[in-house]
């Protein structure tokens, strides 16, 4: 189970589809093996970059059960349950935990505008799913439109013991990490785990600010793992050096909306999935896009060998 002390790299898994748009469970097999072989410390499924919003509840349940059967005895798996419907959240949460999930990832619904509304929403959800399930709060205002203050998040930490983690994706957000750590210490609150997102684009800086790792996706998960491991060993410059080699591709992959197509195409080329299809509606690669990715991957392989 995830807890306040959880650290490492929990890779946000893509959801592989066939060219026809059906869930590709064979590719889930190869993808899970790929992620684990690259050294990730855990998986997170049905996140925003996992196209969870394009799955029906039945599909989400099937994916959850399938991935947990394949992976939960090897690495902890966090299941994203974010949805506008409380019944959806409750059903998927109970299915996930019954199947062996390590915890849940939950973002606020986009209609929330004040700290009090956010607090009340999570109180309602926690009442529906029960108090024993550990939860990571997903702070991703670029997607949800919901901004939570440090004081409001710490109020939730104080009131809800099951909030054990922050998935930090506010941007710019380095100061927010520093503020959370400082205020938690000053108020003598629980020190919750902070895993960061945004494709790992700021990972070395975030680790220096007090993050405990990453919960994000990148088509080269070994980079995230290497940076984390070097940082944990005290080799801060070495961690930055590894990160720098991958930065052009990480930057290209982090383009809003289009970045998922980049990630899937790169994973396809690496043999992790059979098709780079993004379920419709979604971005489609052009000849110019493929040429750009060719150049970036060629450059990356060259610098990786240096």
SSE sequence, one letter per element: EHEHEHEHEHHEHEHEHHHH
In spatial order, strands of the major sheet run 1-2-3-4-5-6-7-8
Cα-based radius of gyration, to the nearest Å: 18 Å
Quaternary organization: single chain
In terms of per-residue confidence, which ranges show pLDDT below 50 for 5 or more consecutive residues? none
- How many discrete domains? 1
The fourth-level CATH homologous superfamily is Aldolase class I
Q: CATH topology, what is it called?
A: TIM Barrel
Distance between the termini: 40 Å
What structural category characterises the helix and strand content?
Answer: alpha/beta
| Overall body shape | globular
Work out the helix count. Answer: 12
Give the amount of beta strand, in percent: 5-15%
CATH class: Alpha Beta
Textual characterization of the structure:
This protein has a single domain (8-305), classed as TIM Barrel (Alpha-Beta Barrel), CATH 3.20.20. The chain starts with 7 loop residues before the first strand and ends with a helix. With 306 residues, it is an alpha/beta fold. 49% of the residues lie in helices and 12% in strands. The chain is globular. An eight-stranded parallel beta barrel has the order 1-2-3-4-5-6-7-8, surrounded by five helices.
């Amino acid at each position: 189970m995830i807890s306040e002390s959880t650290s490492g790299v929990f890779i946000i898994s893509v959801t592989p589809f066939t060219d026809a748009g059906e869930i590709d469970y064979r590719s889930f097999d190869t993808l899970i093996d790929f992620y684990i072989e690259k050294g990730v410390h855990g998986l997170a499924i049905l996140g925003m970059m996992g196209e969870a919003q394009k799955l029906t509840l039945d599909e989400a349940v099937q994916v959850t059960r399938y991935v947990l059967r394949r992976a939960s005895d090897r690495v902890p798996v966090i299941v994203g349950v974010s949805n506008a419907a409380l019944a959806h959240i409750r059903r998927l949460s109970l299915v996930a935990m019954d199947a062996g999930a390590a915890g849940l990832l939950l973002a606020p619904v986009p209609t929330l505008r004040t700290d009090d509304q956010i607090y009340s929403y999570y109180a309602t959800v926690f009442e529906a799913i029960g108090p024993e399930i550990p939860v990571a709060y997903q702070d991703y205002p670029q997607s949800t439109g919901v901004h939570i203050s440090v004081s409001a998040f710490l109020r939730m930490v104080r009131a809800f013991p099951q909030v054990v983690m922050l998935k930090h994706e506010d941007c710019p957000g380095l100061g927010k990490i520093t503020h959370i750590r400082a205020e938690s210490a000053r108020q003598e609150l629980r020190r919750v785990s902070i895993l960061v997102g945004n494709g790992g684009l700021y990972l070395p800086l975030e680790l220096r600010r007090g993050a405990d790792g990453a919960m994000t996706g990148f088509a080269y998960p070994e980079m995230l793992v290497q940076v984390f491991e070097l940082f944990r060993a005290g080799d801060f410059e070495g961690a930055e050096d590894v990160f720098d080699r991958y930065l052009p591709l990480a930057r290209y992959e982090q383009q809003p909306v289009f970045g998922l197509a980049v990630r899937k195409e790169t994973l396809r080329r690496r043999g992790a999935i059979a098709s780079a299809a993004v379920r419709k509606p979604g971005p489609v690669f052009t000849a110019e896009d493929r040429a750009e990715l060719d150049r970036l991957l060629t450059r990356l392989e060259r610098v990786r060998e240096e």
